[in-house]
Amino acid sequence: MEGASFGAGRAGGAIDPLDFLKQPQTILRVTTWIFSIVVFGSIVNECYVNKDSQDPELHCIFNENESACSYGIAVGIIAFFGCIFFFVVDLYFQQISSVKDRKRAVLLDLGFSGFLSFLWFVAFCFLANQWQRTTMSKGVLQGADAARAAITFSFFSIIVWVALAVKALQRYRLGTDMSLFATDQFATDPNAAYPGYPTGSGIESTETYQSPPFTETLEANPKGYQVPAY
Fold first, then answer.
1. In the chain, at which end, N or C, are there fewer CB atoms within 10 A of the end residue's CB?
2. pLDDT for 103-156, tens place per residue?
């Protein structure tokens, strides 16, 4: 993974939409977003059926267990909006200048992806178990394909959300490259000598300081004082 700080470069860098869409993380988010639509869309549209023509009331196709349908719909909706939220976060992640804010975003992504992986695992087990206990009838057979689709894409969602959690963990372990804060005045070679003190132009100034003549530093003899003769 390239980047200087949690998988991204310096803040304020230009974003290439094509490169962004090609990123594995973006592809995974779009994929799980589609899977969530398939799951809750299948349950809402075709997984509420009549027992027979004599009973107009609609029942959940999964062993007539309303909790199974409600749980599948709830997890699908949570995943749907979660994907949109983190897609936007990924889009503006490079604009985040604070390293602490980047770290919080990555940790939030890691926690949410792990949590959704668990929710989808429970959804897959719950729906598959209730489907095995379902008594086949004319109404059930009409929505059987939708029920199988919900179960299948629940399983696929586990894999994709685990992959997103792994990607977030990799970004977290990358941390921050402290070379971002290095200045250009230091040599890149560790064995290179430290740059010396800057020298002048090499031309000596004509206005150099000169001490006054020795005779000018002598004070005049005090009045009346004579040097004794030997």
1. C
2. 888 999 999 999 999 999 999 999 999 999 998 888 888 889 999 999 999 999
Q: Find the Cα–Cα–Cα–Cα dihedral 48, 52, 57, 61, rounded to 10°.
A: -20
Start-to-end Cα distance in the chain: 97
Tokens of 143: 């929505």
Domains and CATH numbers, the chain: 17-177 (1.20.140)
Q: What residue ranges in 58-167 does DSSP mark as E strands?
A: 59-60
Q: What is the pLDDT of residues 180-224, one digit of tens each?
A: 433 333 444 555 554 454 455 455 445 555 555 544 444 545 555
Please state the separation of Cα 110 from the chain's center in Å: 8
The dihedral over CA atoms of 44, 45, 47, 50, expressed in degrees to the nearest 10, equals 120
pTM over 0.85? The answer is: no
> Number of C-alpha atoms within 13 angstroms, CB side, residue 8?
26
From CA 105, how far away is CA 97, in angstroms rounded? 12
| Residue 168: other Cβ atoms inside 10 A | 24
Under 8 Å between Cβ of 116 and 78: yes
Instruction: Write the single-letter amino acid at 213.
Output: P
Structure tokens at 47: 């997984």
- Yes or no: say if 75 and 39 are a contact pair by the CB < 8 Å rule: yes
Dmax (CA) for the chain in angstroms is 152
